[in-house]
Amino acid sequence: MLIDSHVNLHAHQFDEDRDAVIARAREAGVGLMVEISDKLSTFEATHALAMAHADIWCTVGAHPHEARDHTAMTADDLVALAGRPRVVGIGECGLDFHYDLSPREEQARVFRTHIEAAQRTGLPLVVHTREADADMAAILREGQAKAPFRFLMHCYTSGAELAEQAAEMGAWFSVSGIATFKAAEAVREVIRAMPADRIIVETDCPYLAPVPHRGRRNEPAYVGHVLQALADIRGWSREEAEARTTDAFFTLFDGIPRP
Ligand SMILES: [Zn+2]
Predict the structure, then answer these.
(1) Is the pLDDT reported for residue 237 higher than 90?
(2) For strand 2-7 and strand 30-35, is the pairing parallel, antiparallel, or unpaired?
(3) Phi (first) and psi of residue 187, to 5 degrees
(4) What are phi and psi of 199, to 5 degrees?
(5) Is 204 known as a binding-site position?
(6) How confident is the model over 167-208, as pLDDT tens digits?
(7) Given 1.10.10.10, 3.20.20.140, 3.40.50.300, 3.50.50.60, which CATH number is that of 2-253?
(8) Which of 186, 178, 190, 173 lies closest to 245 in space, CA to CA?
(9) pLDDT band at 157 (very low <50, low <70, confident <90, very high)
(10) Ligand 1: distance of its center to the CA of 145 in Å?
(11) Residue 92 assigned ligand-binding role
(12) Domains of the chain: which residue ranges?
């Protein structure tokens, strides 16, 4: 079974053909998808997808780009929404200092709110990080010092040092279509060093379509290309990569019953 651990199926890019996209994913062998919340104003759409489809689960949270609209959000708000059926993670959340679409201190504050929700619910935290390695490491460490929480460094493209520190804190990592990009040798180098039993795969669709679909809209049906890239990078057979990532996925997202 293929698993796409990070889909944005509520995105407007799927408004014309969402059901066909989901059908193509199933035809391609994708047995599970995690639909990711990027802001509370679209959480109802995200949650409705998980309620409507037995093979789609969801998270609740706000992307760092959206932090400026979530400064009043509390951990109580997230914990309450996380109590709904089929919500299996907190996020995505984190720091993005590449685009800086929200002020950095607001990104950090909203990220800490998500960490508190993960600590209180025991649900895994889906972390987005870009060009914020030192601040990310510091906030993760500060959070772990208060109370343990499990977390996933999604679509990981940041530095080797942050990856090492996160791995020490028990992080899971997810690999995306970027691993198939010709120029992404630095990303592949970091993937080679990730803990073998804590790697999963994702499309992050509609963004970041893997080769040979690069440049087009991405969809969950393409996650097999990501899995193959991971297998090639790690020197695993395709079967081994599938078995390892499936085990890692269900260990992390332990609110999802294993079929
Ligand atoms: Zn992200």
Answers:
(1) yes
(2) parallel
(3) -65, -45
(4) -115, 135
(5) yes
(6) 999 999 999 999 999 999 999 999 999 999 999 999 999 999
(7) 3.20.20.140
(8) 173
(9) very high
(10) 25
(11) yes
(12) 2-253
pLDDT, tens digit (0-9, with 9 covering 90-100), for 241-256 = 999 999 999 999 999 9
Q: Tell me if 10 sits within 8 A of 58, measured CB to CB.
A: no
Would you say 65 is a known binding-site residue?
no
Is 6 within any annotated ligand binding site?
Answer: yes
Tokens coding 35 = 């639909």
Cα distances (angstroms) measured from residue 153 to each of 7, 140, 201: 15, 11, 11
Span from the CA of 200 to the centroid of ligand 1 (angstroms): 15
Between the alpha carbon of residue 203 and those of residues 2, 26, 120, 221, the distances in Å are 11, 14, 28, 9
Question: 152: CA distance to ligand 1 center in Å?
Answer: 11
Model-wide pTM > 0.90: yes
The response to whether 55 counts as a known ligand-binding position is: no
Å from CA of 136 to ligand 1 middle: 14
